[in-house]
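The instructor's notes for this session suggest beginning with a concrete chain rather than abstract definitions. Hand out the sequence below and ask the class to guess, before any prediction is shown, which regions might be ordered.
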Amino acid sequence: MLKLVYEEFSRLFGNEKDSRCFFCPGRVNIIGEHIDYNGGYVMPCAIDIGTYFVIRKNDSSQVRAYSLQFPKLGLISFDINDKTKQKQWTDFIKGIISIFKIDFGFDVVVGGTIPHSSGLSSSASFCAGLAYALISIDNKTIDRIELAKQCRRVENEFMGVNCGIMDQFIVCVGKKDSAILLNCDRLEYEYIPFDLKDYALLIANTNKIRQLTDSKYNQRKQESEEILAILNNNGYSFENLCDIRDDMDKYLSLIDNEILKKRFRHIVSENLRTLKAAKALKEKDIITLGKLLTESHLSLENDYEVTGVELDTLVHAFLNEDDCLGARMTGAGFGGCAIAIFKKSRLVEVKEKVKKIYQDKIGYEPSFYEVSISDGVKEIEYHE
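After discussion, reveal the predicted structure:
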């Protein structure tokens, strides 16, 4: 992909000798879903599919940008002071310029290997990658945690997505061959070696198109805030719902709304599952890790209700196969991807069987990815 991006940059902008190349990974969340904005623990990994950038300053106030993912839009140009949203991919560039206070024009070509709307965090990969590249070509540096915080502001304040910080954090701070146990409230984190022994992590994409701003994601966040307000109006003083780690029943009795009870059950139980999963991974207890993944999906399916027929079809097809230690949706849901842990020797067979089950029910095929665990955003060299 870098070769294609580099060649396109040369075609569009001519002499590329002053250009620089960057890569930002995508991410897969092993467990800990829809609790990042509730101050909980998550356990994601950066992965070796991501976004590539070739970029340089252009001695003007103009941005000239081209994406290999949106070739029909062609080369898009605008002034760095233009904050007008056009409901297209360059809105993210305008958000980055605004939040990071970029005061120079630049030429950039972007290409990615993360499928759009897959739930593997293409937006965080793009945002952190371009922000890091712009800071670097301006001969400045930024702390990686601060980079993640500012990229979250781009999503929240400019793009209108009320996401937590998990996606931005992992693509900035990720480490090769390691998961990260992250406390999303205090931003305390721990690297955990990701070793599944004779098993592999398989990612399956539903190929259903979705957008977080058009989904129920913001609604779930609002429901979480309603639950927190109910508890605190009854004498508690929790900053986040994931501060709750004791008996849920005494809190459930304070919540009259049955839907909010279900949401609360998921949030508290998922946070505890994540801590158990981190312990299992440290101890190389892959069987327990797999069981926790399955419990996570059932909670997301039945209590948080963010899965849908596509994700449920994939996950339950995986779980019906021998040698599947566990499976669940990953990401925000409403489409996107599922993950499963299988014996490496069965991957080819499993993919074919699950593909047929999914196509027969949904009407089109899923896609599958076998990934490696990657470092976070970085500058890279291009070699012909």
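Then share the key points. The chain has two domains: 2-193+374-380, 199-370. Residues 199-370 form a domain with the Alpha-Beta Plaits fold (CATH 3.30.70.890).
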